[in-house]
Amino acid sequence: MTEKSRIVLVSGVFLAASLVAFVVLNRWLVTDIGLLSYGRIWQLYASYSDFGFVRRAFVGTIITESGISALFKNEYYLAFTIHHIAIVVLASLIAYYCISRRITDAIFLASIALSPALIIHSGYTTGTLDVFVLVFATINILFVRNMAIFSFIIVCGVLTHELFIFTVPAQFFAILMRRSQVRSSFPFKIILVPALTFIAATVAVIFFGVIDMPEEIFEQIMREKIPIAEGQHVGWSGHFEITSTTEQNAIGALQNLISELQTDFIWLIIPLTYITLLIARLWNFSKGSLEGVSIAIAVLAPLLAALVATDYYRWIAMSANMGILLALFYASQTGRSNSRWNIPLLVLCLLAPFGSAQIDRPFPMHQFVLERVMN
């Protein structure tokens, strides 16, 4: 395949995925609640200058302190604009990686780009910081070789959202494989600095990123920043997310997990099957049991987020994304992308995007269309 045809193939596949993601993102055009379908937007406006060092305010600090937020009179327009840009960045990063690493298997590329968990799902997970988490994880897994840069990206990711913590095993796995240092002795020297950086950032966010501020004062500050969004969502101000402790989140999440799994586990079967297939594809690349187990741990780690939060399909999607990014990494390292698992994974792309919150809505866009047709 010529370089031009390779660029056309990869660009076309990822452009198609981005356009589908935009359709999903702009569902506000056909939903009854319009722009409010974006969900919570406080995380794009919460700033360190208003509340001091608090979790999940990193992106909001950049947006507000740079003056970008002042360009929009309606805060929902800002949210949708930023989300479009983030999806383009994500898709462009992965497309560039595929082009530069000469990954040309059409079925493999389509199973990546059109995944129900990656680009298209990013169009559905509005009201969260997941797309930013995914961009940072993508950069570290696919591109970074320098440990200082690797550590810096980890800090940015942890400050963005605690979900990033669960993507770190895949990042460390990729950097170790890239440096050809796994399977013999444990490479302390290579991962010491990023490991210490990760621990420090995690401790800072978990133990010092929570503030004790009366809800009235907190909401007054946010009311001035996002007046249109006031009261439009039960968590419109972000007070609970910023002030709740890990223990509070874990207790509620575990109670909900036990309750919902007893009655609604059936909804999770297909999304979890998708993750299983992704791991199976990765095992084709592994050279031994230790590497295979490491792959499984790296991919499944984001599912542990279910122990502290209840948006199951977000965690499933992030788990799947680790499997997707590692598959790209292996395809680049080995020159092989053909797998018997590519076709079933591509078929499951027809279910894109996965859901985000309610356990009985694993395929929200399909369910939305069916409900409209039946009514």
| Low-pLDDT stretches | none
Number of domains as seen in the coordinates: 1
Strand content: under 5%
Report helical residue fraction: 55-70%
Shape: globular
Q: Characterize the biggest β-sheet.
A: none
Report, as a whole number of angstroms, the end-to-end distance: 49 Å
Notes on the protein architecture:
The protein has one domain (3-38, 72-210, 245-374). The radius of gyration is 20 Å and the shape is globular. It has helices at residues 3-25, 48-51, 58-65, 75-100, 106-113, 119-124, 130-142, 147-160, 168-178, 188-208, 215-225, 239-243, 246-264, 269-283, 289-300, 312-334, 342-348, 364-374. It has 18 helices and no strands. It starts with a helix and ends with a helix.
Q: Characteristics of this structure?
A:
mainly alpha; 375 residues; single chain; 63% helix
Short description:
The chain has 375 residues and is an all-alpha fold. It has helices at 3-25, 48-51, 58-65, 75-100, 106-113, 119-124, 130-142, 147-160, 168-178, 188-208, 215-225, 239-243, 246-264, 269-283, 289-300, 312-334, 342-348, 364-374. The mean pLDDT is 92.
